[in-house]
Amino acid sequence: MRKSVEPTSVFDSTNAHAILLTVNHVERSLNVPQDTALLYILRNDLELNGPKYGCGLGECGACTVLVNGKAVRSCSIPIKSVIGKEVITLEGLGSPGLPHPVVQAFITMQAAQCGYCLNGMIMGTVGFLKKIPQPTDLQIREALKHYLCRCGTHIEIMQAVKLAAELMSKDGKRSINPEASLDTSIS
Questions:
Q1: What is the pTM for the complete model shown?
Q2: What φ, ψ does residue 96 adopt, rounded to 5°?
Q3: CATH architecture of 4-92
Q4: What are the residues facing 84 on neighbouring strands?
């Protein structure tokens, strides 16, 4: 069920247009320039702080969101390209009382230090596990190699992705062992 929200915008521009945007299962009415990067609308107009501004070039992954289930870099796509599509941010994954399995896995494995890359790592993992539900270590490294983390939590991130895959598995009957031996070398 979608809930409508009154129009809001930080822009006072003559080239602004009224648009409807669905974010985190809520339909939003906005009056914004259609070439504005999705990231700015999410952060400035909708006050969602999950996606971060990192590089502004779509290279670091800090701004990643899901658009119709696919992980995309919100700093490099215009708002007009997501009209009529479902946008999910970190805030739209579960709730504090019932976190999404990927979020829970990152918490369990303590896969964060500064947390700046965390949005991208989590959103990228959600999109990745939708495509490849039971990935190998090599597939995980390949999928996340373009998400920049400078704090060195790569081992914990690898463990979190493996745990998330296990938590999201269809049968759900396999034992969840965070201490399981993983090949976590980054090549």
A1: 0.81
A2: -55, -35
A3: Roll (3.10)
A4: none
